[in-house]
Design brief:
Elements: H1 8-12, H2 17-28, E1 36-43, E2 46-53, E3 64-65, H3 70-76, E4 82-84, E5 110-118, E6 121-130, H4 138-141, H5 144-165, H6 191-203, E7 210-213, H7 220-229, E8 238-242, H8 251-256, H9 273-276, E9 281-285, H10 292-304, E10 306-308, E11 315-317, E12 321-326, H11 330-335, H12 341-347, E13 350-353, H13 363-379, E14 383-386, H14 388-396, H15 402-419, E15 427-430, H16 432-435, H17 447-456, H18 462-469, H19 474-492, H20 497-503, H21 508-517
Parallel strand pairs: 7-12, 7-13, 8-9, 9-12, 14-15
Antiparallel strand pairs: 1-2, 1-6, 2-3, 4-5, 5-6, 10-11
Helix pairs in contact: 2-5, 13-15, 18-19, 19-20, 20-21
Length: 523
């Protein structure tokens, strides 16, 4: 213990738990000259990295399932530290993930791990890995146990600090309980995601309606799940309704229920989604697609907490927390008369904006690691890694389909890579060619839209092309070209956005979103 000269002041003054864990792990590298160190937290049936050293960035997003990782399972099954022989046939979770060996799918040859406990509960594990065998001396091996106990102390203090922050003085007593619950949390630590998490923490336990806004595929449903899980209604149902998928003739019955004989085919009484969600949360996904007549009835329910089944004259009281989600700009729809202003203000008491993937920076690789590990387990290969070229392609792509598109791209790429590998028992590399991405950092125009470019380009459009020749980035040049094409289409159709969108072979809502991103709406 006395031989460990650690910066305790730096550890305890770190901004939060995760940065503290990373600071602590970085200090340990001075005592263990291994290729990689990892601090992993146990979350249900998974071990999830919360701090890494010497591993590629996408490792942070991976979730290692214990049933498919026998080494990790062995580590957390005992209190003593365990060392695996260099010829151990069990796959290592870090195979092919070492940062200093990105160009090769190099397996790990020396692996040491020790389980970590907070109280009597297993918190996770500390791992030490190297491409060379027997890199640690006997003296360094003797440090593993004391380092593990000190790591447990850091974890304990971080957990206790988090509980003290949330401590309510009105409680009769403060009882320490390790926070070991399994959460389906969103992956990412970018500033925009931290801001989103703050919004969720602020509003989750309140009764206020929440309007979740964001592009298609950003994860609005996952935000709704977190709002419900962190509220006082978590033990009650979260009921999901996709408003866009309901036929207009059935929307009212689906939401509020109906009585027998209310319409042809109503052979019995049926409760709607509001009654199913009583005491819980109701998620109205794509709420902008609700017909105006149903919007009026929804407003009445929000105002007085009463619903009326279709065909019935008897109101029923319900206690439902409303969370609405949309990829449309409801404020614009209000101006166009497509959405009731009073309902919009009722729903948007606390608006939450989910950022697009292109604004999340390094989160892209974290999410990529999560999806790659999922596919590794599905496909049953020893290891699955992204080459540096593939990582670069993921980072520069614009991701118009956001997280959903990233998931599908990596699933296809993993399948291609595995099928092209002669020995699937080895570490399989996903190349940039497997991703099949157009890496231009902007949303691509359709072929028909490109043809319209030739028809609509005027002399001033050439300026966008000329700027590219003089060193302006491709992204800025294409954005300028898009602005000019949209302006010309609007001028040609006397500022009719629907007709302009039709001439550009675009959906009107997508044209509005593109114009807002380009700054045209504020002009």
């Amino acid at each position: 213990m006395h031989s460990l000269a650690l910066d305790w002041a730096g550890v305890m003054t770190s901004a939060n738990g995760e940065s503290r864990y990373q600071y602590w792990l970085d200090q340990l590298t001075h005592y263990f000259p291994t290729s990689a160190l990892g601090l992993l937290k146990l979350e249900g049936a998974y071990l999830c990295p919360v701090a890494i050293h010497g591993l590629v960035d996408d490792t942070r997003g991976r979730r290692f399932e214990l049933t498919s990782q026998p080494r990790l399972q062995r580590i957390i099954s005992q209190r003593e530290w365990v060392r695996f022989a260099p010829d151990c046939t069990w796959c290592d979770p870090y195979d092919g993930l070492l940062k200093d060996h990105q160009e090769t799918a190099l397996p790990v040859h020396d692996c040491i791990g020790v389980s970590l406990y907070v109280g009597e509960q297993c918190w996770g594990a500390l791992t030490l890995d190297s491409v060379a065998s027997a890199v640690l001396t006997d003296e360094q091996l003797q440090l593993i146990d004391p380092v593990a106990r000190l790591t447990e102390w850091v974890i304990y203090m971080s957990t206790l600090e988090a509980q003290v922050t949330d401590y309510d003085p009105a409680n009769a007593a403060f009882v320490y309980e390790p926070i070991l619950k399994n959460e389906t949390g969103m992956i990412g630590h970018s500033p925009v995601m931290q801001s989103l998490q703050q919004d969720i923490e602020i509003v989750a336990d309140s009764p206020l309606p929440v309007l979740i806004q964001g592009e298609t595929g950003v994860g609005k449903e996952l935000v709704a799940q977190q709002l419900h899980q962190r509220s006082g209604r978590a033990s009650q149902p979260l009921v999901y309704v996709n408003c866009a998928a309901l036929p207009e003739s059935l929307v009212e019955s689906e939401l509020f229920g109906h009585v027998k004989g209310a319409f042809s085919g109503a052979v019995s009484d049926r409760k709607g989604k509001f009654e199913s969600a009583d005491q819980g949360t109701l998620l109205l996904d794509e709420v902008g697609e609700l017909p105006l007549v149903v919007q009026a009835k929804l407003l009445r329910c929000l105002q007085n907490g009463e619903i009326q089944r279709l065909g019935s004259d008897t109101p029923r009281r319900v206690d439902v927390r409303i969370v609405a989600a949309t990829n449309r700009h409801l404020s614009d729809m209000v101006r166009w008369g497509e959405f009731r202003a009073d309902l919009y203000h009722r729903l948007s008491v606390y608006p939450v904006q989910v950022p697009p993937l292109r604004d999340r920076g390094g989160d892209i690789l974290m999410l990529a690691g999560y999806f790659v590990e999922l596919n590794r387990a599905r496909l049953g290969v020893r290891g699955l890694r992204l080459t540096p070229q593939a990582q670069q392609a993921l980072c520069v792509y614009h991701w118009p389909g956001n997280v959903r598109e990233l998931e599908h791209v990596l699933s296809r790429a993993a399948l291609r890579a595995v099928n092209q590998t002669a020995k699937p028992q080895e570490v399989v590399s996903i190349e940039s060619s497997h991703l099949d991405l157009d890496v231009l950092p902007t949303a691509s125009l359709s072929a028909q839209s490109t043809r319209h470019c030739d028809e609509m380009v005027r002399p001033q459009t050439v300026s966008a092309i000329e700027t590219l020749r003089y060193g302006v980035s491709l992204k800025d040049a294409v954005a300028q070209l898009q602005i000019q094409l949209i302006e010309q289409a609007l001028e040609a159709h006397e500022m009719n956005w629907t007709q302009a969108a039709h001439s550009l072979q675009m959906d009107a809502s997508n044209l509005h979103k593109l114009a807002r991103r380009l700054g045209l709406k504020s002009r």
